[in-house]
Amino acid sequence: MARDTKTCFLFDVDGTLTPSRQKITPEVLNMLKDIKSKVYIAFVGGSDINKQIEQVGDDCLKIFDFGFPENGVAFYEGTNLVEQTKIIDVLGEELYKKFVNYCLSYFSKIDIPIKRGTFIEYRNSMINLCPIGRSCSKEERKEFKKFDDVHLVRQKMVDALQKEFGKYNLQFSIGGEISIDCFPKGWDKTYCIQHLEKKNIKNIYFFGDMTHPGGNDYEIFVDKRVVGIKVEGPSDTVKKVYEKIKEVK
């Protein structure tokens, strides 16, 4: 079939194209190379481009037609950086300091089995909060996820943040296994849609795993401009991509 330049298959990275914080498999890479001849392909993730390169590989930007690290506030067309916006320019230093101080105080008061380091990570698109600390090991990450599923550590923090900072037009969502993403309203993954629309792409199919309310794929999954497809991991992504590609004429 000739390539459909009105259609784009848009992928979340962590938990969709790769296992959480792990590297992409040959099965998924082969699928991406296969469908690229049929439709545009793009990725969107909350992390910066360096973390996505760690997972997808050094050719990450060459594999995809469009790349949207940091939810699309960084916009790549191939390897070319087209646009970059920064959250600090929206929040300002005073509000940012107030937010950081509140979060550090909150972290000091919660009791969880272990804590490591890097509890707050500034990104251009968001502030990433991590109760256990992002420097935890894979095993510690999984243990925290089990603990959080029972004790709702992150959900309770989201509720507290919403009460304290919701008036500043900030939004909070639980991301991956260990963290919370904080960003201006509208700076979730739906932010990247505007870039695809400017390319005259009419049909956007989004594949993601965290599609439940409060998950960081939820807003784009339910957006009316997108056909949302929930997946349960990389192998399921491959299966559902090949099912969906049959519908594209």
Automatic annotation (TrEMBL):
Pathway(s) of this molecule: Nucleotide-sugar biosynthesis; GDP-alpha-D-mannose biosynthesis; alpha-D-mannose 1-phosphate from D-fructose 6-phosphate: step 2/2
InterPro entries listed in its UniProt record: HAD-like_sf, HAD-SF_hydro_IIB, HAD_sf, PMM, PMM_cap
GO CC list: cytosol
Primary site of residence: cytoplasm
Residues at which alpha-D-mannose 1-phosphate binds: 21, 123, 134, 141, 179, 181
Any one of the GO BP annotations: mannose metabolic process
Entry annotated with the keyword Metal-binding: yes
Catalytic activity of the protein: alpha-D-mannose 1-phosphate = D-mannose 6-phosphate
Entry's Gene Ontology molecular function annotations: metal ion binding; phosphomannomutase activity
Active site per the UniProt annotation: 12 (nucleophile), 14 (proton donor/acceptor)
Sites where the protein binds Mg(2+): 12, 14, 209, 221, 223
Described function: Involved in the synthesis of the GDP-mannose and dolichol-phosphate-mannose required for a number of critical mannosyl transfer reactions.
UniProt-recorded name of the protein: Phosphomannomutase
